[in-house]
Design a protein that fits this description.
single chain; 419 residues; alpha/beta; Rossmann fold; 2 domains; 7-stranded parallel sheet; 6-stranded parallel sheet; 16 helices
Length: 419
């Protein structure tokens, strides 16, 4: 069954709208199907990493298909989604949208099952817990040669059912589990009892930021000498934006002109809660909730200090962006963040849920511009040296080739010979 036919059965073919049947791929290319819950919009870092990988795979070596499991036509009205679909189509990447409206409507998986069962899929690469579970089941039933689960965060207080499914399904039925941080890798092996040789550490990475030159300070009426701190994060409970707001109240006592920029999407009730908290603390003119923005590089250029106040993280793309922007970072010592920020070298680490410690770190950096500038320079060097997108792509492609070469289920004779 071709991807074009999948579109007729409920999926969506590339964003260009082209429904012509594509010619068979050259011999030797592996077909990689990437499975993810959502595309674009206000979703988090996992979706962005999945899109970066599928777009960055070498088209001479891989036939690429992206399958989004939670798709509806109204997503086409969202500019970021429309742009992503256009880029996929222009790059020759197949797209399949599953119209899953409820978790247990199993028949909505039929387009993906048909794609996997046509015998041409060589690698199924899933991202995040839900897709990982389904990939483990469907990939094995379809005898896909290589099934990979990409775990973007594994919270320390994960529900028992999640831990059970991760261990007994994902751990047993996939060929590899990618952990984005060494902390997650250790937890999967030591706590979840996954096989050590199965769990592979591939840290997240980004490409260099490209500011457009928009003066965000001028837009917001902030003077060039005004101290500005900020964060880029979805307004979700684990991000603890309220801790940043409480810390800002203390910092503002020493720096009355302080401005705090909070960038990221959140439901209206969460925006109202955080706005109310800022008002209670007398920060109405200090804290600005800017919502979702497309000019993140220009936002970061306006900051003096960047903040991550989460209670847990995998490998934060926001922190990587702060690093690439050359900003000193104050972050909580959770998940994979200590693998990005070395305390006292390129930032300051504090314990989570401690607004006082967060405030003290901010005060230290605002009071010492030379220290802040030195940390910022080290951040930029380290991001580009250790967390570059091309390096991550090379590691992922090497994993594909290694696992395919060793698979007993491989179905691509010319590629098997090359491997």
């Amino acid at each position: 069954m071709s991807i074009t036919h999948l579109a007729d059965d409920g999926g969506l073919y590339p964003g260009s709208g082209d429904r012509r049947v594509a010619a068979p791929p050259p011999p030797g290319r592996l077909r990689v199907v990437t499975l993810v819950d959502h595309l674009g919009g206000h979703r988090g870092g996992a979706e962005r990493v999945a899109l970066d990988i599928v777009q960055g795979l070498d088209p001479q070596r891989y036939e690429r298909v992206l399958c989004v499991t939670r798709w509806s036509d109204d997503q086409l009205t969202k500019p970021r989604v429309a742009t992503a679909l256009h880029e996929l189509g222009a790059a020759g990447i197949g797209f399949v949208g599953l119209r899953r409206t409820a978790r247990w409507k199993l028949w909505e998986w039929r387009p993906l099952v048909a794609l996997l069962r046509d015998g041409r899929t060589d690698v199924l690469h899933a991202h995040k817990f839900g897709s990982n579970v389904w990939a483990a089941i469907l990939g094995r039933l379809a005898r896909v040669p290589v099934v990979i689960a990409h775990e973007h965060s594994f919270p320390p207080d994960a529900a028992p059912l999640r831990r059970l499914l991760s261990r007994e399904l994902v751990g047993r039925l996939t060929d590899a589990v990618i952990a984005v941080s060494e902390t997650d890798q250790r937890r999967m092996v030591e706590t979840e009892r996954m096989a050590a040789e199965q769990v592979v550490h591939i840290p997240n990475a980004i490409g260099a930021l490209a500011p457009a030159g928009h003066d965000v300070r001028a837009e917001l009426g902030i003077g060039p000498a005004t101290p500005v701190v900020g964060t880029v994060a979805g307004l979700r409970p684990e991000k603890r934006i309220d801790d940043l707001i409480r810390a800002s109240a203390r910092v503002a006592r020493s720096w009355p002109a302080l401005r705090v920029l909070i960038v990221g999407y959140g439901p209206p009730e969460e925006v109202a809660r955080l706005t109310g908290l800022a008002g209670e603390l007398g920060l109405d003119g200090t804290v600005r909730l800017l919502g979702s923005r497309s000019d993140i590089p220009d936002i970061l250029a306006a900051l003096d200090v960047a903040v991550s106040s989460s209670t847990w993280e995998g490998s934060s793309l926001s922190v990587l962006e702060y690093m690439d922007a050359g900003k000193p970072v104050v972050a909580t010592r959770v998940g994979g963040t200590p693998g990005l920020i070395a305390d006292g070298v390129n930032g300051i680490l504090v314990e989570p849920r401690d607004p006082e410690a967060l405030a003290s770190a901010l005060l230290e950096l605002l009071a010492d511009p030379e220290l802040a500038a030195r940390m910022g320079r080290e951040n930029r060097r380290r991001r580009r040296r250790e967390f570059d997108l091309e390096t991550m792509l090379a590691r992922v492609q090497d994993l594909y080739e290694h696992l395919y070469a060793g698979s007993r289920r491989r179905q691509n004779p010319s590629r098997a010979a090359a491997s």
